[in-house]
Design goal:
Helix 2 runs parallel beside helix 3. The strands form 2 sheets. A 5-stranded mixed sheet has the order 1-2-7-5-6, covered by helices on one side. It has a two-stranded antiparallel sheet with strand order 3-4. The chain has a single domain, classed as 2-Layer Sandwich (60s Ribosomal Protein L30, Chain: A). By secondary structure, the chain is α+β, with helices and mostly antiparallel strands.
Length: about 160
C-alpha cells in the first residue's frame, strides 16, 4: 500500500469515486510531466452537495466543507491518473473559484480548507501555489470549483 493511501487510512478519509465530466472534456490530462485536473466540484455519489453563493445561500462553514469535498475529488482523480500514486510527484498549483456575493471577501479562508486537506494527506508533496477567484456564479450553481496542476514522474522515472 502506498504511503499516501496509508495516510488517508490514518486520517479516516475515504476518497470518492472520480467524478465524471460535466461536459465534453477530459477530467485529467497528463503531458510533459504535468497533470492537469479539470475543475472539480463538491460532488459525492454523482450529486452536487453545495450550491449557491457564499454570502447568500451558503455560509463560510459550508463553503469550507464544499472546498474539502472538491479537494477529495481532486485527490481521487490524481490517485487514478497516477496508478495509485505511483507516478505522483507533487502538487504545483491550486486555483479556487468560490461563488460569492459582491460584498463577501473571505475566499482565502475557504480555500485554506482545501490547502490544509492537501497538506494533511500529501505532506510535503501537497505544498502548492494558489490563487482564489470570486465569480458570482459557477457551472451547475456550484459553491466551489477547484482546478489543480500537479507534477508526475514519467513512466521511466522511479517514484519515491
Amino acid at each position: 500500500m502506498h504511503a499516501i493511501d496509508k495516510r488517508l487510512r490514518q486520517l479516516d478519509i475515504e476518497l470518492p469515486q472520480p467524478t465524471r465530466p460535466a461536459g465534453a472534456y477530459l477530467p485529467v490530462i497528463c503531458q510533459d510531466g504535468l497533470l492537469f485536473v479539470s475543475g472539480q466540484f463538491p460532488m459525492l455519489d454523482g450529486e452536487l452537495r453545495y450550491r449557491g453563493q457564499v454570502g447568500r445561500q451558503q455560509d463560510v462553514a459550508n463553503a469550507c466543507l464544499a472546498a474539502e469535498l472538491a479537494a477529495l475529488n481532486v485527490l481521487a482523480h490524481i490517485r487514478q491518473a497516477t496508478h495509485h500514486w505511483q507516478r505522483f510527484a507533487s502538487l504545483l498549483r491550486l486555483e479556487g473559484h468560490i461563488a460569492s456575493t459582491a460584498d463577501w471577501h473571505q475566499q482565502p479562508e475557504v480555500l485554506d480548507s482545501a490547502s490544509q486537506l492537501f497538506d494533511q494527506v500529501l505532506g510535503e508533496q501537497g505544498r502548492h501555489t494558489r490563487t482564489a477567484f470570486a465569480p458570482s456564479h459557477l457551472p451547475l450553481d456550484a459553491t466551489v470549483e477547484l482546478v489543480v496542476i500537479a507534477r508526475v514522474y514519467d513512466s521511466h522515472s522511479p517514484s519515491v
